[in-house]
C-alpha cells in the first residue's frame, strides 16, 4: 500500500512480484507486512477475498491503464503449511486452500505464484501444491538461492506437460528468478541454467542500507547483467526490492532502463 505505484508501472518493468504471502494452518492466506508502518492483512478466508477494495484496486492498477509497462503480476510465498494441507485435505477443487487461491487470483488479477522456499524444501508436497495452482490457472515460478537439487527436481516434475493429470499444463514453471545477492551472492546464472535446463532471470539487490555490501547501483547492475548475458544468454534480469529503491531515494527509471536496454 505504500509503494509508488505510478513509478513502478511506468519504468519499463514488465513483471512485478508482490512479497509476500503465506498460508495459515486452516488454508486461509495472509499478506505479510515487511515494512515499518504496515501490518499483516488476511486476504482470503474460506474461498472469499477479504483484503479490502483499496488493496485490490491498488494491486489491479499495476496492469491497467495506457501508461503501464507491466503485464504480469506474481505473489511470492514461503512453504509454511503446504505439506500438512497437501496431506489433508489435499489439493481438490472444493478445499478451502484451492478456493482461497482461486479467489485471490480473481481479486488481484494474478498471473503466477512464486515459490520463495528458503527452509522446508519438501518436494512431494510442493509438486502437489504447484499442480493445484496450475489447475486454477496460475503459472508457477521459483526463486532459489541455494539447494540446486531441490529446484531441479521441481522443474523436472512440473514441466512434463501433465500438470495435475487433468490435461496438459506445459511449462508450469515458466520462470526462475535466481537470487544473486546475500546468501546467493556466489550464484552463477549460467551454471544454474545448465542444471535446470532452462534460462533464468538473475536478481540483484539494489542499493540498500541494511546490507550495503550487497547493494548494486544501476550502473553496476548494467555491468553484471551484460556480463552474465554475454557468457550465457538469460531470460531477463530483475531486482530485490522496491522498498529500498524508495527508502534510498533511487530511480525506478534508471534501474528499469538497464533491463529494457539489455533485454529488449
Ligand atoms: C465455507 O464456505 C463453504 C462454501 O461456500 C460453506 O459451505 C461453509 O459453510 C463455509 N464455512 C464457514 C465456516 O463459513
Ligand atoms: C491515456 O489515458 C489517459 C487517462 O485516461 C487519457 O487522458 C489519455 O488520452 C490516454 N492516452 C492515450 C495515448 O490513449
Ligand atoms: C532498508 C532495508 O532494511 N531493506 C531490506 C533489505 O533487504 C532485507 C532482506 O534481504 C530486508 O530485510 C530489509 O528490510
Largest sheet descriptor: 10 strands, mixed
- How many separate helices? 10
Spatial arrangement of strands, main beta sheet:
4-3-2-1-5-6-7-8-9-10
**Helicity range of the residues?**
25-40%
Label the overall shape.
globular
Radius of gyration: 18 Å
| Structural class estimated from helices and strands | alpha/beta
Q: Tell me the span between the first and last alpha carbons.
A: 30 Å
Strand content: 15-25%
Spell the H/E element sequence.
HEEEEHEHHEHEHEHEHEHH
Q: Residue ranges: pLDDT <50 for 5 or more in a row?
A: none
Protein name: Coagulation factor 5/8 type domain-containing protein
Please tell me about this protein's structure.
By secondary structure, the protein is an alpha/beta fold. It has a domain at about 1-140. Helix content is about 35%, strand content about 20%. The protein has helices spanning about 5-10, 55-60, 80-85, 95-110, 125-135, 150-160, 190-195, 220-230, 240-245, 250-260; strands at about 15-25, 30, 40-45, 50, 70-75, 110-115, 140, 175-180, 200-205, 240. Helix 7 links the parallel strand 8 and strand 9. The longest helix is centred in the middle third of the chain and has 14 residues, at about 125-135. The model has no long low-confidence stretch (mean pLDDT about 95). It binds 2-acetamido-2-deoxy-beta-D-glucopyranose (3 copies). One 2-acetamido-2-deoxy-beta-D-glucopyranose binds next to helix 9. This is Coagulation factor 5/8 type domain-containing protein. It comes from Phialemonium thermophilum.
How are the elements arranged and paired?
Blueprint: H1 5-9, E1 15-23, E2 29-31, E3 41-45, E4 48-49, H2 53-61, E5 72-77, H3 82-87, H4 96-108, E6 112-115, H5 123-136, E7 139-142, H6 148-158, E8 173-179, H7 189-196, E9 201-205, H8 218-231, E10 238-240, H9 242-247, H10 252-262
Parallel strand pairs: 1-5, 5-6, 6-7, 7-8, 8-9, 9-10
Antiparallel strand pairs: 1-2, 2-3, 3-4
Helix pairs in contact: 5-6, 8-10
Bound molecules: 2-acetamido-2-deoxy-beta-D-glucopyranose (3 copies).
